């Protein structure tokens, strides 16, 4: 099998459809499992995946160093390397320069193929403007230390338009998948890039694993159609979009890597029947909503720290996917202890504020009991 590649005129490079996202390497004792992760990188390179996307903060700031070590086993021109400026750490122009040099050193390279401002938003645009970071990026390009510049992005269409206006970005990285397309209007962001002819790099195509398994009554639609993995539908869906240059997948084991390679080798865009199946799956998933929380946040803030809408979201997603591992991770790793459901003191201050009339303390108690048993 050989990974499909796409040539992008505006970038002047041919990129593999699948890029290796370097934020979820296999780990051992909370550190990157060097041997397993190295084996995956070698396997990826041998199968045509020669695009690597990392960032300063991934794996407790160790992803860049690890990647630098392993990739030095290959000729520099044989792979594309992307990392991102941790803009939240920039408090002066000198900081940007210092961080950039530190990143090159960790990555064992004297140039980057792509350098992105990390996780841009309206707030972070203020930092960019204050310290002239766009000009900083342009200078790096002029110096030959960076070949292409861009940013990853999490905010509205309006903010995206503001960031693009009057600037020459080569690429933008967006969170695109068939769930977020309508749920958080990711399609508007995608169309902004298409309008400006800026290639889109896609992150979270499987939405952190949410689109990799569903409750049996939902996933049967896909399983009856083909034996392909549930995640492969999501990967093919994004890769079928014409302005998508690279789909990034943060892979944690060989099985995921091999599955992604087989999905994007000899790539076939989804056909009409497959697209209809995805529509059906999305509709059915939307109907699995045991807690009718809309995420309006009228109930917040809870004086005892409970992140009520977040707990309800994790629980609803658990019921849609029935994926225990991802739910455990969302609830026990990504949600801080002080924000979990068991911190509810049943003061009932939130109850009258909820337009959906949810028995918030009662539901929180049941949810914590159920999730703690996973
Ligand atoms: S009932 Fe629970 S969740 Fe609601 S405000 Fe009181 S402590 Fe917070
Ligand atoms: S007020 Fe009700 S619907 Fe709104 S976020 Fe809180 S629990 Fe959800």
Describe the protein.
The chain is an alpha/beta fold and 374 residues long. The chain folds into 2 domains: 5-279, NADP-dependent oxidoreductase domain (TIM Barrel), CATH 3.20.20.100; 308-372. It has 16 helices and 12 strands. It has helices at residues 34-46, 58-61, 63-71, 93-106, 122-130, 133-142, 157-164, 180-183, 186-195, 216-225, 230-239, 254-264, 272-287, 308-321, 324-334, 360-372; strands at residues 5-8, 13-16, 18-21, 27-28, 31-32, 51-53, 80-85, 112-120, 146-153, 171-175, 200-203, 244-250. The strands form 3 sheets. Strands 3-6-7-8-9-10-11-12 form an 8-stranded parallel barrel, surrounded by 6 helices. A two-stranded antiparallel ribbon has the order 1-2. Helix 10 runs antiparallel to helix 13, helix 14 packs antiparallel against helix 15 (324-334) and helix 14 (308-321) crosses helix 16 (360-372). It starts with a strand and ends with a helix. The mean pLDDT is 96.
Outline the fold blueprint:
Elements: E1 5-8, E2 13-16, E3 18-21, E4 27-28, E5 31-32, H1 34-46, E6 51-53, H2 58-61, H3 63-71, E7 80-85, H4 93-106, E8 112-120, H5 122-130, H6 133-142, E9 146-153, H7 157-164, E10 171-175, H8 180-183, H9 186-195, E11 200-203, H10 216-225, H11 230-239, E12 244-250, H12 254-264, H13 272-287, H14 308-321, H15 324-334, H16 360-372
Parallel strand pairs: 3-6, 3-12, 6-7, 7-8, 8-9, 9-10, 10-11, 11-12
Antiparallel strand pairs: 1-2, 4-5
Helix pairs in contact: 10-13, 11-12, 14-15, 14-16
The chain binds iron/sulfur cluster (2 copies).
């Amino acid at each position: 099998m050989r990974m499909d590649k796409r040539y992008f005129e505006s970038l002047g490079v041919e990129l593999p459809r699948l890029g290796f996202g370097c934020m979820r390497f296999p780990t051992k004792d909370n550190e990157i499992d060097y041997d397993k992760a190295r084996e995956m990188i070698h396997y990826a390179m041998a199968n045509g995946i020669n695009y690597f996307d990392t960032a300063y903060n991934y794996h407790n700031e160790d992803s860049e160093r690890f990647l630098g070590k392993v990739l030095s086993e290959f000729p520099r021109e044989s792979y594309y390397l992307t990392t991102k400026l941790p803009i939240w750490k920039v408090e002066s122009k000198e900081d940007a320069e210092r961080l950039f040099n530190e990143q090159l050193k960790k990555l064992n390279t004297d140039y980057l193929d792509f350098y992105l401002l990390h996780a841009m938003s309206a707030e972070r645009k203020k930092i960019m403007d204050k310290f002239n970071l766009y000009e900083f990026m342009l200078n790096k390009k002029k110096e030959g230390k960076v070949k292409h510049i861009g940013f990853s992005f999490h905010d509205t269409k309006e903010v995206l338009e503001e960031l693009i206006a009057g600037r020459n970005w080569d690429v933008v990285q967006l969170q695109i998948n068939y769930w977020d397309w309508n749920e958080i209007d990711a399609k508007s962001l995608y169309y902004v890039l298409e309008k400006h002819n800026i290639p889109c790099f896609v992150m979270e195509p499987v939405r952190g694993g949410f689109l990799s398994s569903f409750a049996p009554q939902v996933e049967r639609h896909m399983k009856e159609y083909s034996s392909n993995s549930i995640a492969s539908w999501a990967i093919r869906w994004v890769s079928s979009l014409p302005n998508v240059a690279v789909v990034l997948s943060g892979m944690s084991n060989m099985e995921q890597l091999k599955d992604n390679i087989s999905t994007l080798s000899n790539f076939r865009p989804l056909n009409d029947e497959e697209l209809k199946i995805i529509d059906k799956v999305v509709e059915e998933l939307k109907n699995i909503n045991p807690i009718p929380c809309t995420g309006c946040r009228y109930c917040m803030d809870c004086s005892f720290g409970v992140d009520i809408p977040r707990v309800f979201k994790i629980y609803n997603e658990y019921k849609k996917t029935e994926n225990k591992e991802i739910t455990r991770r969302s609830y026990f790793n990504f949600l801080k202890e002080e924000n979990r459901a068991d911190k509810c003191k049943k003061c009932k201050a939130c109850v009258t504020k909820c337009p959906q009339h949810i028995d918030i303390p009662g539901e929180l108690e049941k949810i914590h009991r159920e999730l703690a048993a996973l």
